Amino acid sequence: MDDAVAAVVHDVIQASTKVVPGIRHVALSAMQRETLRLLTATDDLPRRLESFQVVLDEGPTHDAAHEAVPVIVECDEIVARWPEFGPRARALGVTSVAAVPLCWSGRTLGALSVYSVHEGSLPDGVVELATAYAAQAAATLSYAKKAENLEFAMITRQQIGQAVGILMERCELSAEAAFSYLRRVSQTGNVKLRDVARDLLNTGELPLCARAVRSSEPVRTNRGE
Can you name the residues that pair with 114 across neighbouring β-strands? Predict the structure, then answer.
């Protein structure tokens, strides 16, 4: 996540603490390959609570993200529901928690969790407001991911094109023959095409010797044209 997206997401959770009186401890975590990763938090308390959940594989953020449903638990129910996480949360003064999933286009991207250290139930409207802020954060993360994928795809195409150009020059191949060679190396070695191209650009070395290229790909550029 780049700095601009991080700043927007951080502003989202900071804004949530100003809307509901008594709520000061908020964290936002995203799913990465089935594992939660903290993106931002208002202070150290939610950071510690989110870290516990990653290690223990249980807790409100964990459940909201994996089950894609809001999780609202208060007082002693925290210990009853999460035998490992619960006592740690209570020892830090947590009395109640509301975690809502970050849902966008049918996918769950993570969860936003609100922790309270005040006795009694969560303030009215916490779940509704947390859900609204979670939707805003989910949209931000989703569009950031799309932009990242688009940029990555553009860089990948550029690298493959550069690798093809190197092969054309060094081995006197046509563009089609050079690309076919890269693709064959990718398939034979079970390595992604972009990684084959990147290795060639970084090392300047061919995955196979030039003689092998010429013998297997006889098509060459016509320098006289």
Answer: 26, 98
